[in-house]
Amino acid sequence: MKKIIITVVGKDTVGIIAKVCAYLAERKINILDISQTIVSGYFNMMMIVDMTASDVHFSEMCDELDKVGEEMGVSIKCQKEEIFDMMHRI
Amino acid sequence: MINQREVLETNAMIEKENLDVRTITMGISLLDCIDGDLNKLNENIYKKIYDSAKDLVSVGDYIAKEYGVPIVNKRISVTPIGLIGGAACKSPSDFATIAKTLDRVAKDIGVNIIGGYSALVSKGMTTADELLIRSIPEALSTTDCVCSSVNVGSTKTGINMDAVKLMGEIIKETAMATKDNDSIGCSKLVVLCNAPDDNPFMAGAFHGVTEADRIINVGVSGPGVVKTALEKVRGEDFETLCETIKKTAFKVTRVGQLVAKEASKRLGVPFGIVDLSLAPTPAVGDSVADILCEIGLERAGAPGTTAALALLNDQVKKGGVMASSYVGGLSGAFIPVSEDQGMIDSVKDGALTLEKLEAMTCVCSVGLDMIAIPGDTKDTTISGIIADEMAIGMVNQKTTAVRIIPVIGKGVGEQVVFGGLFGYAPIMPVNTFSCDAFINRGGRIPAPIHSFKN
């Protein structure tokens, strides 16, 4: 499994999750987990996705999600899961 | 599964607290490049380095993108050139051609710095070593990316005082040769005692002769992360303080370990070590001095500073050692002056003197680092400062170093700007009483006794 953590941070507007999910579906990227909070008007979402079945390359996905984020005025960051595993699990 | 709090914590470290991987350094052995013909030697060196490291920058950038953590520098260290050039170089200028080759290949590959224009003379100097040392002013004034280091002492061999004396002169000559540029050449030159073979940090990095043909060493950083973690335990006792530093050091080092393993896999080069150092930068919030203040000092340099630094250094090691399979290099807290905004402020406020810095080097990872002194400081005084620092390393079985910059044309109270990661520094006063007769004796200081520890 190629697990990627996607984090979306920015001002809350309508349809953030919808747009990110639509992109992921189009690219055959499977969502494993979503959690979301609003902290003082700021939208904070974390997704764990699996891109094993996807035909898109990791760096392409980053660039494309960057654009999706830009259109909505939020920042979208993609990172391989290992960095969090390494830091928070022994 | 990873939860949102953990993801947010990691990303806050990266985005707000300056967590980064300071350097991926590829060590490359040049022993198989040796040739009696200078042109052929230069050609061999260029080819070996280029072929070994041509993908280093692109792989480093790609890893940074995948994990979302900045990798600030990609560097190369090579076998000490004093060992490589002996057969072909008959003059200092011959050696300087190798420096130019190193500079050229570093630029062609796109790495930030290349280290290893070095000589290991802790007991004695070969003719080649001495020629290399004498070529340093030319080498550093005619290149941009080359770093030079000279190991003049060790716990096992004592201190080579002839080399110490010579280095006082060479530092001044290097300052003169780069005087139009605020003597910046000296920021690329370090004198060491007990230099490690696998250090990824500059200016002291070289690829030791006990190392494999090629190796990947990684240096992590993160003073800002430690500082932020300590803000949450203000007023708590030492146990809580130490536990917090250890846990934070663990997390920071894990990132280094991950990056080192990935880089090693993708470049097909064995993983060497992770260096656990807390390396500051001039950026606000990326300061070791600020950690000392957070521990409870008004300014770095106040009474208690040495104890606070000793504690910090030790806890960073304790936390980091478990996080990496192989730890090496310098591993500890760096205390450069010009590269740390908190240190600069302390010097400006009169809280931190050269003598206090010297005391601090007894318990930190390296030594007197990036310190600007008046340009008219005598050669022998510089040698005396080096000798003191080497003695601390020799007796305490640790690495110590001196990277000091006599800024030609400037005096105490003035300021010098090096730019970039090198930062800026106020020029510090130096004790001007003479040590001429001591330095001019010649010979070496014998190795210390290894028993009767007191």
Task: Pick out its properties.
heterodimer, A: 90 residues, alpha+beta, 3 helices, 39% strand, B: alpha/beta, Anaerobic Ribonucleotide-triphosphate Reductase Large Chain, eleven-stranded mixed beta sheet, two-stranded antiparallel ribbon, 15 helices
Give a written overview of the molecule:
The complex is a heterodimer of chains A (90) and B (454). Chain A is of the alpha+beta class and 90 residues long. Chain A has a single domain, classed as 2-Layer Sandwich (Alpha-Beta Plaits). Chain A has three helices and four strands, in the order E-H-E-E-H-E-H. Chain A has helices spanning 16-26, 58-72, 82-88; strands spanning 3-11, 30-39, 42-50, 74-80. A four-stranded antiparallel beta sheet of chain A has the order 2-3-1-4, sandwiched between helices. In chain A, a hairpin with a 2-residue loop joins strand 2 (30-39) and strand 3 (42-50). The longest helix of chain A is centred in the C-terminal third of the chain and has 15 residues, at 58-72. Chain A is globular. Chain B has a domain at 25-193: Anaerobic Ribonucleotide-triphosphate Reductase Large Chain (Alpha-Beta Barrel). Chain B has helices at residues 4-15, 38-53, 56-67, 81-84, 92-109, 127-141, 161-177, 223-231, 238-267, 288-295, 305-323, 341-348, 354-360, 379-396, 436-439; strands at 21-28, 71-78, 113-120, 146-154, 158-160, 189-193, 214-220, 271-275, 368-374, 400-407, 415-417, 424-426, 444-445. In chain B, strands 1, 2, 3, 4, 5, 6, 7, 8, 9, 10 and 13 form an eleven-stranded mixed beta sheet that branches. In chain B, strands 11-12 form a two-stranded antiparallel ribbon. In chain B, strand 3 (113-120), helix 6 (127-141) and strand 4 (146-154) form a beta-alpha-beta unit. In chain B, helix 7 (161-177) packs across helix 14, helix 8 runs antiparallel to helix 9 (238-267) and helix 8 (223-231) runs parallel beside helix 10 (288-295). The longest helix of chain B is centred in the middle third of the chain and has 30 residues, at 238-267.
